[in-house]
Amino acid sequence: MIEHTVEILVRYAETDQMQFAHHSNYIVWFEHGRIQLLKKYGFNYADLEKSGYLMPVLEVTARFIKYAVFDETLFLKTKMLPLSAKQSFEYEVYNSQEELICTGNSLHTFINKNKRATRPPRDLIKKLKPYFEI
Amino acid sequence: MIEHTVEILVRYAETDQMQFAHHSNYIVWFEHGRIQLLKKYGFNYADLEKSGYLMPVLEVTARFIKYAVFDETLFLKTKMLPLSAKQSFEYEVYNSQEELICTGNSLHTFINKNKRATRPPRDLIKKLKPYFEI
Amino acid sequence: MIEHTVEILVRYAETDQMQFAHHSNYIVWFEHGRIQLLKKYGFNYADLEKSGYLMPVLEVTARFIKYAVFDETLFLKTKMLPLSAKQSFEYEVYNSQEELICTGNSLHTFINKNKRATRPPRDLIKKLKPYFEI
Amino acid sequence: MIEHTVEILVRYAETDQMQFAHHSNYIVWFEHGRIQLLKKYGFNYADLEKSGYLMPVLEVTARFIKYAVFDETLFLKTKMLPLSAKQSFEYEVYNSQEELICTGNSLHTFINKNKRATRPPRDLIKKLKPYFEI
Q1: Confidence of residue C134 (pLDDT cuts 50, 70, 90)
Q2: Of A104, B119, C29, C79, which residue has the fewest beta carbons closer than 10 angstroms?
Q3: Closest-CA residue to B41 (of B134, B119, B103, B132)
Q4: Mutation test of the interface with chain C: which of B7, B10, B11, choosing the one with the most C Cβ atoms within 10 A?
Q5: Nearest-CA residue of chain A relative to D9?
């Protein structure tokens, strides 16, 4: 299982007048989580783009269970599902009391420089395949 | 059917290095759409909060079909589903060629000042009910 | 004098837990204002970038006089100072009571595709010069 | 001298189509820097607000020297100037090559629950005064 946990500290600018972290920020955090997951497994997203690939979002969902507040430290666990032309990631956000406060998932495709759908880059397959073969 | 369309002009700050409008902005636009829809039907969300109600998001999904770019004018159509303790809204985003580029939906609850779940505010029911009775 | 006024409706996501529009949004609005000003005077910023020019920000200042709140309509007046390799813009934000709530200014440079400083694009000079010659 | 350095990792959502970190993010980072500085010196901004004080921004300036890119680690050094009814902070952003890429400053006031200007909270004076007396 490919997974990785990052810490998120809720910034003041991420709050809204409801006194909670605005829900749109979780979408930004999910992205941060999957980029850090890829990095942990030897795959730099910045390099992926430089080599001519993009991994745009086809779909994203977030489900909110409990609110996060300013200056709270959150733990975002990202899971990468097996490699696919329609690549899935799953997310779980925990607060410091280890309560699950949000879940989510996203679906991605790979496109090349001409913005056409393409197979996952070979380098990504090579680096990540071993982890899915167990 | 309660629905309302707002125009969105993609701001420079909303783009990302993929040269598209970053996907998290659609979540912000959906919120703008449902607030304007409520306003059109005589219901000011600012007043709702002043009267002690909040309508936090329980779940939000966005599905991306085509990309939007900087300075593009988009048309966001928001639909409000029948009043419910779990209130649903649906979204469709069109570009200026009338292509559907994104769909979405969100689920909300009503909470009171003590952050407890509550029925939809009476005033909202009164104002919106007629539209659902046809 | 080259100037242009745009309307800004404060979005919910732009508020913070202080119950005001977060101050970082004014920087985003200033950018929106100067892009719309250029458009009004026949100059599309999207086209500028396509033709290989960028106009990055060298410096930006915002001074806050009064707070803006959710769902408030603001009027942002942008002034463009005479064309220069260090291009200046000035900003004034008014609320619906016509109170001045924020002032600002920004300084820009023009860079070409190789990210080197360059003179303002000829097309821009041609289009805007007449307005400064009075 | 009261100062504190925090690390910032440029998020994908913080980039724009110029391929740089959008300039408005520095304003958000400055805020993060001064909140972490206060925390380091025993002063929790969340508690400050709970006790009825707000520290809104009167003025903020950012000067950009060099661009930051996606996934770059930046070091933001925040300095707090001596306590005053008009409180100043200064900022310097360095990239991982230790190049200074941005400087800034901000001016703040203290307001109480009634949104009236007030002296800096006693607790803040008590905690920070020793550092300014050397």
Answers
A1: low
A2: B119
A3: B132
A4: B11
A5: A32
Confidence of residue A134 (pLDDT cuts 50, 70, 90): low
C contact chains, 3+ CB pairs < 8 A: A, B, D
Complex ipTM? 0.94
By the CB < 8 Å criterion, does A56 face chain B?
A: yes
CA distance D105 to D30: 8
Pairing of strands A57-64, D57-64: unpaired
**CB distance from A71 to chain D under 8 Å?**
yes
Whether B46 has its CB under 8 Å from any CB of chain C: the answer is yes
pLDDT, tens only, D31-78: 999 999 999 998 899 998 888 899 999 999 999 999 999 999 999 999
8 A C-beta contact, residue D112 and residue D106 = no
Calpha distance B94→B82 (Å, rounded): 24
- CB-based contact, C69 to chain B, within 8 Å: yes
pLDDT over threshold 90, residue B16: yes
> Which candidate, B32, C28, A60, A78, places its Cα nearest to that of D14?
C28
Instruction: Report the predicted TM-score, pTM, of the whole model to 2 decimal places.
Output: 0.96
The set of chains that have 3 or more CB pairs under 8 A with D is A, B, C
Say if CB B107 and CB B56 are below 8 A apart.
no
The DSSP secondary-structure symbol of C13 reads G
Q: Please, which residues 83-122 of chain A have a Cβ atom closer than 8 Å to chain D? A: none
Percentage of residues in chain D with pLDDT exceeding 90?
Answer: 74
When CB atoms are compared, the residue of D13, D32, D44 closest to A11 is: D32
In which band, very low, low, confident or very high, does the pLDDT at A1 lie, cut at 50, 70 and 90? Answer: confident
Report the residue of C23, C32, C69, C102 to disrupt the D interface, i.e. the one with the largest count of D CBs within 10 Å. C23
- Tell me which chain D residues have a C-beta less than 8 angstroms from the C-beta of A71: 35, 39, 44-46
Between the CA of residue A19 and those of A10, A23, A86, B113, C18, what are the distances in Å? 12, 12, 36, 12, 8
CA distance C104 to C30: 8
Which residues pair with residue C57 across a beta bridge? Answer: C108
Q: State yes or no: pLDDT of D88 exceeds 60.
A: yes
Read off the tokens for A14: 């991420």
Q: What is the pLDDT of residues C44-89, one digit of tens each?
A: 999 988 888 999 999 999 999 999 999 999 999 999 999 888 999 9
Q: What DSSP assignment string belongs to B21-74?
A: B-THHHHHHHHHHHHHHHHHTT--HHHHHHTT-B--EEEEEEEESS---TT-EE
Q: How far apart are CA C30 and CA A28, in angstroms?
A: 23
